[in-house]
Amino acid sequence: MKALLSVYNKDRIVEFAKVLNDLGIEIIATEGTAQELLTSGIRVTKVSEFTGLQEMLNGRIKTLHPRIHAEITTGEIGIVAVNLIPFDTSRADPLASMDLGGVAMLRSGIKNFEHAAVIVNPSSYNAILEELKKDGELSHGTKLDLAREASQYLVAYDSKIDMALKRIK
User: What's the pTM value of the predicted model, to 2 decimals?
Assistant: First the structure.
């Protein structure tokens, strides 16, 4: 199994990735997350190496790639840990801070929750690791609960975008 890690909030990500590695799970990560893990001595494949394409537009486009979404769909990527760039409504152009690839990965994980656990909250890492250590996999119920949490996370994110769009004249 593979885990795709793309987190703005890097709380506990090093510990999470270390245990995933110890469990034999291959880590794929976006550049910023990969750098954090590599600095801590954790084996990781950068998304650019995985897809064969370098980041584009100063890092704004990196995970919108068919290989990523195909492997989430099939469960080859069985863990998708993503939290988004905060949507900054105080900016002159708030849409410039809108996350694209992270949203797409979350939606892909939610759609395919039976094959991939989608994780948005670092406070979930410990329980997920405990279940993986105990059972070797995550239960249907756990993956469904994680998908519901991710869906609520996206609703809140999309609500901020909606409010910003309503203010544009």
Answer: 0.91
